Amino acid sequence: MLRILVPTDFTDSSKNAVNYAAALTHVIEAELYLLNVTHVKGTPHVTITEDFEQVVSEQAEIQLENLKEELSRTKPGIKVEVFMAEGYPVHQFVHRVAEKNGIDLIVMSGSESSGTRAFLGSTTTNVLENMPCPVLVVPKDARFEGFNNILYATDLKKEADELPLVIDFARLFNAKLHILHIIEKQKVTINDVEKGKLLREKYRYSDLKFTILKAEDKAREIERYARENKEDLILIFIHNRSYFENLFQYSVTKELSFESSVPLLVFKKPGE
Q1: Digits of tens for pLDDT over the chain (272 positions)?
Q2: Under a CB-based contact definition with an 8 Å cutoff, are residues 4 and 24 in contact?
Q3: I need a labelling partner for 96 at 20 to 30 A (CA). Which of 34, 163, 203, 256 fits?
Q4: Are 261 and 139 spatial neighbours (Cβ–Cβ below 8 Å)?
Q5: pTM for the whole thing?
Q6: Buried (b) or exposed (e) across 204-230, using 16+ Cβ within 10 A?
Q7: Distance separating alpha carbons of residues 34 and 51, to the nearest angstrom
Q8: Going by DSSP bridges, is the β-strand pair 2-7/105-109 parallel, antiparallel, or unpaired?
């Protein structure tokens, strides 16, 4: 049975990620692990006492147990384990719990506000930097209704390693698989078109579509394509956090934000 870890700070967006992951467990037969990390930070003028830290920790523990009971009540048969930790930074505890418990997937919430850094939140961004397993980022208003349409955005540099994993994942949900390759050059060449034909012939997935688009802003084009084609999931492979931010961060000067309603599943490049 797979194991899904969901860090939560009890905000609306993180609770939504919990509910999203809980719905997912019924489809892929997984156990749910909830993690809350408390951290009380003082200031030069305010000293945090041990008693106050204890109160914060106890309140968080109560909230975590209430969340577990709510899931057991509303989703019969779900298996839920809870973990508490105290300290900072949060992402280190996420990594530690994931590695110690053999977690297969981390599900994290997006932020309440806009922009890539805000959409992911600093904790999520840091988890992605050295992620021990795939990470699913859930926008604050997303609802799990299956992955019927999956968008695989790729630079085609390691598709021989990536596509078998993508296809295996798509088969779990009997999903339509859309491969999107965005180029920055002047026009699509015959080599680009032939690449799509070769992929379809090589992998022979029952419902596979290959699309090449030209765009300077790859993130904006991926989000637009996903929205217009009613994709249920965007799937990407990344080298590291900086690559991710280069791909998905909008310039402030352009006044753009990444307010995607499409969940994002992030895998680490094979071999890294």
Answers
A1: 899 999 998 888 899 999 999 999 989 889 999 999 886 554 444 455 555 567 667 888 899 999 999 999 999 999 999 998 887 788 888 999 999 999 999 999 876 544 444 444 567 777 877 788 999 989 888 999 999 999 998 888 888 889 999 999 999 899 999 999 888 766 666 566 677 677 777 777 888 888 988 888 787 788 889 999 999 999 988 865 555 555 544 332 222 234 567 898 988 876 65
A2: yes
A3: 163
A4: yes
A5: 0.84
A6: ebeebebebeeeebbbbbbbebbeeee
A7: 25
A8: parallel
How far apart, in whole angstroms, are the C-alpha atoms of residue 164 and residue 203? 8
Residue 36 contacts residue 8 (beta carbons within 8 Å): yes
Distance between CA atoms of 247 and 266, rounded to whole angstroms? 13
Structure tokens given for 194: 């032939």
Amino acid 147 reads F
DSSP SS3 for 235 = strand
